[in-house]
Specification:
With 204 residues, this protein is an all-alpha fold. It is 71% helix and 0% strand. The radius of gyration is 20 Å and the shape is elongated. Keywords: DNA-binding, Transcription, Transcription regulation.
Length: 204
């Protein structure tokens, strides 16, 4: 007979992966403790013992998300030979990642929690920081394009970075609402049509 009070053993990494998927699909507020424990295959005392709180579990799940999901999006931004190609590949990879049917659509960092109050300030702060870091990655690549002479010296890298980050966030909402990959790629085409206006050049 099992000893009373003996902690239930489980694969913590696998449980965290499943919690991430619940948060990704339902957001922080929409994911109940019962949703999480059912997906993770553990009871609530085990959840709290292993992760501390729902908030701590969410923050750890978001960190896992940044490590394992959407990596092709950011590698495309860094590896493309020109700033224009970098932005276009970044958006096209976003369309691909956000529209996959074997996982929740959209982006956990964009959709996980938007409305801050005292009960979830740390969560909103964490997601806001991550969104700012993503915009900063775009900004660095655009500034590199200016430094390398691809873009004019008066190119407004800050405005362009904000614009393309906003496009990506909008694609996340579109995907969550059921937009197809083709529809997301049409958004990419529209966003790239604005490139020549911002760059003041016909260069590809």
């Amino acid at each position: 007979m099992p000893e009373r009070g003996r902690p239930r053993t489980f694969d913590r990494a696998a449980a965290l992966q499943r919690a991430m998927e619940v948060f990704w699909a339902k957001g922080y507020e929409g994911a109940s403790i019962s949703d999480l424990t059912a997906a993770m295959g553990i009871n609530s005392p085990s959840l709290y013992a292993a992760f501390g709180s729902k908030e701590a579990l969410f923050l750890e799940a978001v960190e896992l998300y940044t490590q394992v999901e959407g990596t092709d999006i950011w590698s495309a931004l860094e590896k493309a030979p020109t700033a224009r190609q970098a932005v276009e590949r970044f958006l096209r990879q976003t369309a691909k990642a956000y529209s996959q049917t074997d996982r929740p659509q959209g982006c956990l960092i964009a959709l996980g929690a938007l409305h801050q109050d005292s009960s979830r300030g740390a969560i909103c702060d964490d997601l806001r920081r991550r969104r700012a870091e993503n915009r900063a990655a775009l900004l660095r690549r655009l500034k590199r394009g200016v430094a390398e002479g691809e873009l004019p010296k008066n190119f407004d890298s800050s405005t362009a970075a904000t614009f393309y980050a906003t496009v990506q966030h909008g694609m996340s909402i579109q995907a969550r609402d059921g937009a197809s990959r083709a529809a997301l790629l049409a958004t990419v085409a529209g966003a790239m049509a604005a490139w020549k206006v911002m760059a003041g050049t016909d260069a590809a």
